Amino acid sequence: MGKVSYKDFQAKIYSSLVRYKKEELKIEEKGVSSHGVPHDCLFPEPYCSSEIPVMLYTGITGIVKDIQESAFAYKPHIAASNHVASSQTACINLFVPILESDFADEIIKKSGICPSNFDHIDRTQLRKGYCFEYWEQNAEGSKGLLGDHTPHAGTDSDVAISYMDKDGNHCLWLIEHKLTEQEFTTCGAYRSDRNPVEMKENCKKCSLSDFYADHNKCHYHKNCGYYYWNIMEQEKIKQFYSGQFDKEGCPFRGGMNQLWRNQMMAFELERIGLFKDVFFSVVSHPENTFLDKTMNEYRKLINNSDKFGDFKSKSLVDAAIEYLPDWTDWYKRVYMIG
């Protein structure tokens, strides 16, 4: 059997989600794209305008309403209520049932994917120990720890789980969730028309050493005032990124950009003393192998540090079967987790 293409993988997941929309949610009507094109994978009104996505597992809709009325309300993505394959909605469907469960610690440990020092969720932090779209907005003001937050953009983590380690220290686990995405978010400056051509040449030709020596070679530093390269001045972070990179130019102009920014946020949370250790992971659909190339390149660059890891959603779901059978049956069927 030949290698599955990205288009085939995407079509397989989309077809399952559209089938769920039609057969179980009883929504036959197509939604309309921003270009005026009808699509089965989009929801029509009033569903596409709902504050609570219709794709949510029914057992957590009340909990999500409570989250959105709390101090830890998250900002919904544009696709959250509009698209059957919203990664944000899939993320909430994956984590809320587990993290709200009395057996959350057991499920996380049994899954084998948590940081090695994980002991138990710290329910005194965040909202009952977790939140979505985390960027610690209270730590350094409205621009966030990396100085890149605006009302429309900025670095955040899909899920943050506060936990106690085995020595009684407060720690944090940041998680980026991917469903059908083919790549991580690439560098917005490199893509931007507002970034002059000569600055983009720096992106293509300059190494990390060049950016360390002159931060102004980066559009984000020179023209946006983001803190990225100021943070990278720390010797421990330079050492962290001292591994192998086989291409010319900035390692972070492609898909590693999103991994880099989340990792920097982790380092900053440690530096300001909010948490003793902060780990960063990526969770993806078990058949989504299309992110592996970028993650493997990133591992080489960071010398295979255990501060970064990845796992498949199936690991969590399988670990929860004996504790949450109704939800695990639903999640496996809807999202095609074998």
List the helices and strands and how they pair.
Blueprint: H1 6-23, E1 31-32, E2 38-39, H2 61-68, H3 87-99, H4 104-111, E3 118-121, E4 130-134, E5 157-165, E6 170-178, H5 188-191, H6 197-205, H7 208-213, H8 219-222, H9 228-231, H10 235-240, H11 256-271, E7 277-284, H12 292-301, E8 308-312, H13 313-320, H14 325-335
Parallel strand pairs: 6-7, 7-8
Antiparallel strand pairs: 1-2, 3-5, 4-5, 5-6
Helix pairs in contact: 4-13, 13-14
What does this structure look like?
By secondary structure, the protein is of the alpha/beta class. The chain has 14 helices and 8 strands. The strands form 2 sheets. Strands 3, 4, 5, 6, 7 and 8 form a 6-stranded mixed beta sheet that branches. A two-stranded antiparallel ribbon has the order 1-2. The radius of gyration is 20 Å and the shape is globular. The model has no long low-confidence stretch (mean pLDDT 95).
Radius of gyration: 20 Å
Q: Provide a count of the helices.
A: 14
Total strands:
8
Overall average residue pLDDT: 95
Fraction in helix: 25-40%
Keywords:
338 residues, alpha/beta, two-stranded antiparallel ribbon, 14 helices, 37% helix
State the gist of this model.
With 338 residues, the protein is of the alpha/beta class. The chain has helices at 6-23, 61-68, 87-99, 104-111, 188-191, 197-205, 208-213, 219-222, 228-231, 235-240, 256-271, 292-301, 313-320, 325-335; strands spanning 31-32, 38-39, 118-121, 130-134, 157-165, 170-178, 277-284, 308-312.
